[in-house]
Amino acid sequence: MKNYIKVSGSEKTNYLRIDLDYSKGGYNYFTYKNEPRGYYIHVSPVNRENKGDYFMESYTAFSGIKDCILEVTRASKKAENQAAEIFEQVKDRYINYILDKYGLTLEV
Hints:
single chain
């Protein structure tokens, strides 16, 4: 599930990309931490350009936020549906965090 929200306030960012993904977890070599298996929300500031036949997307490494919203022992349709419900409840909090952190505003 990938969603985009139009934002302004930065030359390098014109959208926020919001994802809900499943991860098997394990050791993260970038953070040196063991991450749990589960469903994660990702909110990242990106620059998206329409090139006619395709979109080009760029971002700054380590910008944005990633958080486990539902720990599971294995992926399943039931767990995915539960994670989607949680995602809808918490996504605004994560979006507002990124807007504040990078000085961005939503475009209406």
